[in-house]
Design a protein that fits this description.
Elements: E1 4-8, H1 14-28, E2 33-37, H2 43-47, E3 51-55, H3 69-75, E4 84-91, H4 97-108, E5 112-113, E6 118-121, H5 126-141
Parallel strand pairs: 1-2, 1-3, 3-4, 4-5, 4-6
Helix pairs in contact: 1-5
The structure holds flavin mononucleotide (FMN).
């Protein structure tokens, strides 16, 4: 079993950059990870990990991506109680409403979020990449 599971959806690649950088931070902490696109992730992946990073950009009108991530989040409702988690994702023109809603939802499922949702505007620049690495290390050590 890996120390940390990182599961994400990314249409344009921005959230994917965040996910990959988070993995670098996990590695820097000396821990192991598994990185999966949500389309190939299972509820079992969530149940079998102690720490979970879940990433999705703001889509629709301030909602999660609806064909893969939204049903996945619904499916893991009963599997995240007490689990240390980081939520992350990229956004465009909004104010982060999708992430605030997502945080409340995961808390209502009993997840233990290690921080507020980590959001970056559009494509991560170097400081965004560095911040992602730092969040990965924080989650690995949480
Ligand atoms: C169909 C669609 C809907 C979007 N809706 C929002 C939105 O409601 N609020 C927002 O801040 N950004 C919105 N965006 C912008 C994306 O969140 C932003 O481009 C993000 O960087 C995409 O991440 P990705 O490259 O990982 O897919 C939307 C983008 C698309 C393509």
């Amino acid at each position: 079993m890996k120390d940390v599971m990182v599961i994400y959806w990314s249409g344009g690649g921005n959230t994917k950059i965040m996910a990959e950088s988070i993995c670098k931070g996990i590695e820097a902490a000396g821990k192991t990870y598994e990185l999966k696109e949500v389309g190939s992730a299972t509820v079992q992946d969530v149940e079998s990990c102690n720490r979970l990073a879940l990433g999705c950009p703001s889509m629709g009108a301030e909602v999660l991506e609806e064909s893969e991530m939204e049903p996945f989040v619904e499916a893991i409702q009963g599997s995240v109680k007490g689990k240390k988690m980081l939520l992350f994702g990229s956004y465009g023109w909004g104010d982060g409403e999708w992430m605030r809603d997502w945080e409340e939802r995961m808390k209502s499922y009993g997840a233990e979020l290690i921080s507020d949702g980590f959001i970056l505007n559009e494509t991560p620049d170097q400081s965004g990449i560095d911040e992602s690495i730092e969040f990965g290390t924080q989650l690995a050590n949480a």
